[in-house]
Design brief:
This protein is an alpha/beta fold and about 700 residues long. It has three domains: about 5-235, Class I glutamine amidotransferase (GATase) domain (Rossmann fold, 3-Layer(aba) Sandwich), CATH 3.40.50; about 255-465 and about 675-685, Aldehyde Dehydrogenase, Chain A, domain 1, CATH 3.40.605.10; about 470-655, 3-Layer(aba) Sandwich (Aldehyde Dehydrogenase, Chain A, domain 2). About 35% of the residues lie in helices and about 20% in strands. It contains 21 helices and 33 strands. The strands form eight sheets. Strands 2-1-3-4-11-10-9-6-7 form a nine-stranded mixed sheet. The longest helix is centred in the middle third of the chain and has 26 residues, at about 315-340. The protein starts with a strand and ends with a strand.
């Protein structure tokens, strides 16, 4: 596995930075990565083991309160670059990743840490400002005992120069110290003051990538060699992202550690105070911009979602559209449900309820619908004034990072939304933090573990878990073919990888044979294949191990007398594909009728009457949804009223609405998302008794 050095792109002299590293320097274990603000390839930041922030056009004056006009002002600034590189720095800082700041890069780091710049050294700047093709050169004095002194092994030396701005020595950034001065006392280098608790970072005002002579070796080659040593020494765990349709590696990115999780939490704790002080309207304006960006970048986002999860491309677009509708609901209704609620507005003692943010909440999300289940939590949480520690599934990490990127672009501060990258061990680290609420979407087993782990904290813990959702087709159904089509979609959509997918079907004996025949025929018409093909309706499973789990359910059913009418085989092709399975002659002694499947398999059981159907539908430890298809609402309602589930459907299934609460009972979860319940779920009420 090669180490990667990310070099920030500059429109001036970028080839010098790449050319600084020879093949001998890089060997077989290091490669260079261009990090470009023009391409905004944020995702590549997370796979780098070292960074170089390069020189170039001046920082935008708004970053440090500078004047809009000054003698050597460029024709235009590059605000997008400032923002992009600030994220590189914060990521390197948070993860203790080796970093070199060169010229402009050093100035940016000082400003980001609260320092200031000398905006223009003036036209009399004969030492530093480059006026011709050849760099100026001057001596520097290096502070003994500094990192730069250790690397260069001398206290004086000759460096080049090409700048008209400089670090203001009166305002050095937090945690930084000067390590070198020029002959006019211009700051020539910075480093961390506390090297024990920070990663390797060296900043220089000169351009080591353009120093060539033997006299320059201590301030060019020595710096490069030390930087490469630190990069090779950096030993972050890597998370491998695999395309489930091709089994090829998309990328490898850095996992979080306990230390990085702790630092991100401290950032969120600080950021939440300022965020909650903003008005609700200001917070919502950011979320509206985020929603607009989901539409603006939908092609890119849908393509990434399909590559990472195997979801057919049209279904990826559908998910984004659904997420946008939910965000629209939250942004339109949050002002009402987050506002103070006057209970007794008149009289001697007035009474009201205020809905205050919880604080820092943890959102451990799912891979099957990363946008839909994500926005259920982080959108209302942010609207209410919380900061969010978001843990996407390891099977949807790149999408999670895209969500973070777009939230930042929308104006959400970096210290109000952080992503925890990694597998279950990283999620377990979140449980050790003193968070003010936990919101999880996933399996019952993991949800139970989370609930037990955080119970002693006495903070909200909402669990959106799985189900074994039943559907009953009565014998009075008028349009059998349409009913079959609806049931089939409820089983197969997203390859059955939905919490509320139809997982067991009961059909009245009067129409059973016709129903099964139609189901098998309609299933045969669906196209399984490349999820990027617009005609594909069934893509691969998102996780390889799920195939073995489903095959075990099928084998268990067949061994107990079930009949496999279709599918249940593995196609001879790359990818985690599986032919959808249909089983009949099933009963509740079989796993496929009692244990959650989460895949494109279904058991269809014949029932004598409504009462038998009801008893079988009730025979489960889950309680998410239940559906009945019938011409007669009263007949269907008699069953739906007796189902101990959070949601019931009449003549529809596998449906979620932003206006209605989404909640589970028994092993299907705790608490509610969506509707106004899902807005106030991220608040804590405070009662006001007011006299005077």
């Amino acid at each position: 596995m090669k180490k990667r050095i990310g070099i920030s792109f500059t429109t001036t002299n970028y080839p010098f930075y790449q050319g600084w590293f020879t093949q001998k320097d890089l060997g077989d274990d290091v490669q260079l990565e261009e990090l470009s603000f023009l391409r905004n390839n944020m995702e590549d930041i997370y796979r780098c083991d070292g960074f170089i922030l390069t020189g170039g056009i001046d920082l935008d004056p708004s970053l440090y309160g500078g004047k809009e006009t000054y003698p050597n002002k460029p024709q235009s600034h590059q605000e997008q670059r400032d923002l992009f590189e600030s994220r590189i720095f914060r990521y390197a800082q948070m993860n203790k990743i080796p970093l070199l700041g060169i010229c402009r890069g050093m100035q940016l780091i000082n400003v980001l840490e609260g320092g200031d710049l000398v905006q223009d050294l003036g036209d009399a700047n004969s030492i530093h400002r480059k006026k011709e093709e050849k760099d100026l050169e001057h001596e520097i004095d290096i502070l003994p005992g500094s990192l730069l002194h250790q690397i260069g092994n001398r206290t004086k030396g000759l460096v080049n120069s090409a700048h008209h701005q400089a670090i203001d020595e009166r305002f050095i950034g937090r945690g930084l110290r000067v390590n070198a001065y020029g002959p006019d006392k211009t700051v020539e280098g910075l480093e961390y003051a506390d090297k024990e608790n920070n990663g390797f970072m060296l900043c220089v005002q000169w351009h080591p990538e353009r120093l060539k002579t033997e006299d320059h070796i201590p301030f060019s080659e020595n710096i490069k060699e030390r930087f490469l040593y630190e990069v090779r020494k950096n030993n972050m765990n890597k998370l491998t992202i695999i395309n489930p349709a091709t089994e090829t590696v998309i990328t490898e990115i850095n996992e979080d550690s306990k230390d990085t999780i702790d630092r991100k939490y401290q950032s969120l704790k600080t950021g939440q105070i300022a965020w909650s002080a903003q008005t609700t309207q200001k917070r919502i304006e950011c979320l509206i911009r985020f929603n607009d960006l989901l539409e603006e970048k939908k092609e890119e986002l849908a393509g990434l979602l399909t590559a990472e999860t195997g979801k057919p491309l049209q279904q990826a677009y559908n998910e984004l559209n659904g997420a946008r509708n939910r965000i629209r609901f939250f942004t339109e209704h949050a002002p009402k449900y987050l506002a103070d609620e006057w209970i007794t507005p008149d009289g001697v003692t007035k009474e009201k309820i205020a809905y205050e943010p919880l604080g820092v909440i943890g959102n451990i999300s799912a891979w099957n619908y990363p946008y839909l289940v994500g926005v259920n939590v982080f959108i209302p949480a942010l609207a209410a004034g919380n900061s969010v520690f978001y843990k996407p599934s390891e099977y949807a990490t790149l999408t999670g990072l895209k969500i973070q990127e777009l939230l930042y672009l929308s104006g959400i501060p970096q210290d109000c939304f952080q992503v925890a990258i990694g597998r279950g061990t990283v999620g377990a680290e979140l449980l050790q933090l003193p968070l003010n609420g936990y919101y999880f979407t996933g399996s019952y087993r993991t949800g139970k573990y989370i609930h037990e782990a955080v119970a002693h904290k006495l903070v909200p813990c909402q669990l959106e878990l799985g189900g074994k959702d039943p559907l009953y087709v009565m014998d009075d159904i008028e349009d059998l073919e349409s009913a079959v089509a609806a049931v089939l979609e409820g089983v197969i959509y997203n390859n059955g990888q939905s919490c509320c997918a139809v997982e067991r079907v009961y059909v009245h004996e009067g129409i059973y044979d016709r129903f099964v025949s139609s189901y098998v025929k309609q299933l045969a018409l669906l196209k399984l294949g490349d999820p990027t093909d617009p005609a594909t309706e069934i893509g691969p499973l998102s996780r390889k191990e799920q195939r073995d789990f489903l095959l075990d359910q099928i084998q268990d059913a067949v061994s107990k007398g079930a009949r496999l009418l279709a599918g249940g085989t593995i196609p001879e092709r790359k990818g985690y594909f599986m032919e959808p399975a249909v089983l009949t002659q099933v009963d509740h002694s079989m796993k496929i009728m009692t244990e959650e499947s989460f895949g494109p398999v279904i058991g269809i059981q014949k029932v004598r009457d409504d009462e038998e159907a009801l008893q079988l539908m009730q025979d489960t430890v889950y309680g998410l949804t239940a559906a009945v298809y019938s011409r007669n609402f009263q007949r269907a309602e008699s069953i739906l009223q007796r189902m101990n589930t959070g949601t019931v459907y009449w003549n529809c299934c596998d449906r979620v609405s932003a206006t209605l609460p989404w909640s589970g009972r028994k092993h299907s979860g705790l608490g509610s998302t969506l509707s106004y319940h899902g807005i106030r779920a991220f608040t804590v009420p405070k009662a006001y008794h007011l006299r005077g």
